[in-house]
Hints:
This protein is mainly alpha-helical. Helix content is 60%, strand content 2%. The protein is built from 15 helices and four strands. A two-stranded antiparallel sheet has the order 1-2. A two-stranded antiparallel sheet has the order 3-4. A hairpin with a 3-residue loop joins strand 1 and strand 2 (34-35). The longest helix is centred in the first third of the chain and has 20 residues, at 57-76. It starts with 7 loop residues before the first helix and ends with a helix.
Amino acid sequence: MKRTGWSLGAFVLALGLISCGGGADEAGTAGEGQMLPEGAEAFSLLGEPLFPNPARAEVAARQGRDVRGAREDYEADPNDADAIIWLGRRVAYMGSYREAIEVFSEGIEKHPDDARMYRHRGHRWISVREFDRAIEDLSYAADLVRGEPDEVEPDGQPNERGIPTSTLQSNIHYHLALALYLSGDFETALDSYADYMAVTTNHDQLVAISHWWYMALRRLGRDAEAAAVLEPVTAHLDVIENTSYHRLLLMYKGELEADDLWDPESEDPSGVAIAYGVATWHLYNGREAQAEEMYRRILQGTGWAGFGYIAAEAEIARLEAAGS
């Protein structure tokens, strides 16, 4: 990966720690008005422009059909909340995160009390490395749904069983905790993990939140609490989608070998998530140099939108900022 110069000030800017909340940025800008190169979606936390990765021909064709259908539904009724959400989601699946943010921002203007708009925009603020804005949107979404009944969130890319595994509230708390974790605020993230656990209804949700919760506790040196998070996790859980998190948790329990999971060549987001989990396991077990080497291996890949990749990027950005 091509590298650029780095400074503590650039790291703070990249994390969005000095950016204010509010509506979506103007097209072509990021953070404090940094101009993006044409075609770029974001700057990495290391200051590099990030461009969409071309999908395989058959995937791109399917995504194009999905976007056209979503646009037709939107154009038929531009005020329909579901049509706005699906247009934003479909556009984001193609890697057009800035456009998706604009769609969800329009949705917020039209439906300011619809938590779904903030949930989805918050997710895409994470994709473009603007964590403060993600935290603001997702915190507001959490306030909107507090005390309300939860609802299943339809899958944009259904699993092989066709069974949705997540809900609106679980996704709000998951992405809020993730944004806090990526910002290095492990302590505050714990509250969102607890909120997520309170609405957990299946094993996919259990392993997803347990993975990040465990890592945050280990980063805080709260090893006994982290061990307790692992107790409900067994090899026999019926996990449909989040098998990567399930395998990592079994590795944390000593039931799988770390070397058998480590695969930095994987371009699949779930494979990158596993690689990040293994690297961070080395980090909080005192093997910092090995962890750093692994993070840098992850960043040699191209899957920059995956959460494992973003997390590895944040680790290296913190290390380089601390050493500057």
